[in-house]
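Hi F.,

I've been meaning to write this up properly since the lab meeting, where we talked about keeping a consistent format for the predictions we share between groups. The idea is simple: the sequence comes first, exactly as it goes in, then the structure tokens exactly as they come out, then a line or two of notes. No screenshots and no reformatting. I'm using this chain as the first example so we have something concrete to point to.
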Amino acid sequence: MALRGNLMGAIPVRLVVMMKKALLVTVCAVMGGVIALKVNEYTNAKKERTATIFTQPASVELASNEVAQTGANVDFRAAAKKILKSIVSINAVGYAQNWFGEDVEQGGQGSGVIMSNSGYIVTNNHVVRVNKVNLASEIQVHVPGGKVYKGVVVGTDPRSDLAVIKIEAEGLVPASVGTSANLEVGQWTIAAGSPLGFENSVSVGVVSSLDRALPIEGTDMVGAIQTDAAINPGNSGGALVDAMGNLIGINSAIATPSRGSVGIGFAIPVDRVKRIVDDIVKFGRAKYGQLGVVLDNRNTMANPNVGKFLVQRFGGTPPVNGLIVRQAAEGTPAYRAGIREFSVIIAVDGKDLREPIDFSKIMTDKKPGEVVAVKFWNESVTKSVNITLEDLVRS
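Output, unedited:
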């Protein structure tokens, strides 16, 4: 699948391998094999429902997270037992048309995490879809203990690659939800799920890096947790937990030259997961704070021809850095603030914008009603304004 999209979805970013070989960023669900997203280069630099449904982290046999992470005799048995009570395997079946217009059955398999005893389960958006347009028509959820239930999609959010499904079952054990706010590179991680269909599997690693940004189909994955715990096809939607067994992320993708794990996996941070899941449970969809602009994903102020064009059109001296606005719809927060086509957004909340993904990093976790400070250039005049973000999706 090619990397493509726009500001509201995927913003192409090039990833590069030091050995000059192209990597694959792979979403880790088994959907007719593997859904692989081709990446050119890789660089190290580069409906009213119940509201909150999460449990607080519970105590386990290990004395503390600090001891579990640094003790001489590290033992993950308690953490594994704790999280595996909340891990499900998901089989999704649907139909999509082939090149001849024929409906062809497609099947897939992934993982999920039980988030409430009322049956809400979080997984990846790509686990419950047969393609970007069609949801799976049948979802089977295998819970701990071997029972199988019919899953119903409550809502999906392609932007975060998250989805919520619901089953009618009793005796479910929700995951103990931690936080991703205080993670540190080097601390222990445990990935739990159904890699290659092998249910109730765990693998152990560490937090390899934080705040990773990479493009996957339909979105920018920003703020991702990188881990070397083995993540393979089938792990998508499964849990990444700390050494206490507390949920810190939802596994979503790997970078690989071969389609299998090479120790570079990525998880969606749990603090974002909590917000998105709560929105989906309450409203049927995720709500984002938006300016209401579409940015040029290819041409930035780093291109000297862009500056020449702006001088010819508007005069004055355009900024050295910034992102070009291709559209600011009338009535949006950006439009009311004076931003127009060919305006240049220089900075948001004091952070300079040089690449489109810089904008995604800042805006992904913004909520409707939040106020952002925007510095922009329009028709040879530079302005700084405070703009209140809005949810611009029409239900």
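Notes:
Confidence is low (pLDDT under 50) at residues 1-23, 31-52, 54-67.
Residues 153 and 165 are 4 Å apart (CA to CA).

If this format works for you, I'll send the rest the same way.

G.
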